[in-house]
Amino acid sequence: MDSKQLQAKDKKELQTKFETTQTSPVFVPAVDIYETDDSLVLLADMPGVSNQGVEIHLEDNELTIRGKVAEEPSGLNPIYTEYRSGDYYRSFTLSNVIDQDKIEALMKNGVLKVVLPKAEAAKPRKIEVKAG
Length: 132
Prior knowledge:
CATH topology of the domain at 23-71 and 82-119: Immunoglobulin-like
Order of helices and strands: EEEEEEEEE
CATH class of the domain at 23-71 and 82-119: Mainly Beta
Largest sheet: 5 strands, mixed
Helix content: under 10%
Structural class: mainly beta
Mean pLDDT: 83
Shape: elongated
Strand content: 35-45%
Number of strands: 9
Low-confidence stretches: none
Strand order of the largest sheet: 1-2-7-6-5
């Protein structure tokens, strides 16, 4: 019998060529992208980020997602920790297949959902064949 076990993945810390002034770590959120007939749906896992902590920017065909985690309560002395908290950053280059004016986003339970509607020209369509 083949049994599958869940394997916890460590968070991937953002690697950049630039120096930052931020002292807390910045992670690359895990992302799944799905395609429907009408859109691409991007799901980004950003635990600890609230609706107010999410920033999404679109400039020059680049979609940038930032998630800011609320500060942890002060006065606590960690004895043992397995979870590193920090902010999130990821960017994507969009093609002309996406209708950039109709992008929508929803943050719920630490998961950001971004719906990227396809432009009309990029949507699949059925072509009717006429009898000649």
